[in-house]
Automatic annotation (TrEMBL):
Biological process annotations from GO: response to arsenic-containing substance
Protein name: Arsenate reductase
Keywords annotated in UniProt: Arsenical resistance, Oxidoreductase
Catalysis performed (reactions): [glutaredoxin]-dithiol + arsenate + glutathione + H(+) = glutathionyl-S-S-[glutaredoxin] + arsenite + H2O
Primary enzyme class: oxidoreductase
An MF annotation (GO) of this entry: arsenate reductase (glutaredoxin) activity
Native organism taxonomy: Bacteria, Pseudomonadati, Pseudomonadota, Gammaproteobacteria, Enterobacterales
Organism encoding this protein: Chimaeribacter coloradensis
E.C. code: 1.20.4.1
Family the entry assigns: Belongs to the ArsC family.
Length: 142
């Protein structure tokens, strides 16, 4: 069984679609509800390093803490941004998926297809009605 972890927010459509695409590959991932069980500082640093992005690139901007803390300003170093994400997990953009093929922030949700080891097993349509996978398990081009 392929070992996959998703840092998931069930209130987020992109996160729900990503989870459904993982399940459509025949895998039941480890689901971490990161708003309830945030990653440790070391885990968060590792996720960011494994994605090859900056701490700032993982920040979710359209949230209240982002505005309140003035995080749009360029005066924060990575450690300070990590502190903000750990204090306010809603600032961690989602979903982050970890598979044997890599770690990725899956926005849009189809980005997960690039790191899923197992093929899609059937058709998949996102919640908004966009068809992503055809009945043969192949990614549809748009």
């Amino acid at each position: 069984m392929t070992d996959i972890t998703i840092y998931h927010n069930p209130a987020c459509g992109t996160s729900r679609n990503t989870l459904a695409l993982i399940r459509n590959s025949g895998v039941e991932p480890t689901v971490i509800l990161y708003l309830e069980m945030p990653p440790s500082r070391d885990e968060l640093k590792k996720l960011i390093a494994d994605m090859g992005i900056s701490a700032r690139a993982l920040l979710r901007k359209n949230t209240e803490p982002y505005e309140q803390l003035g995080l749009a300003e360029d005066r924060f170093n990575d450690d300070e941004l990590l502190n903000a994400m750990l204090a306010h997990p809603i600032l961690i953009n989602r979903p982050v998926v970890v598979t044997p093929l890599g770690t990725r922030l899956c926005r849009p949700s189809e980005a997960v297809l690039d790191i899923l080891p197992d093929p899609q097993q059937g058709a998949f349509t996102k919640e908004d009605g966009e068809k992503v996978i055809d009945e043969h398990g192949n990614r549809m081009s748009h």
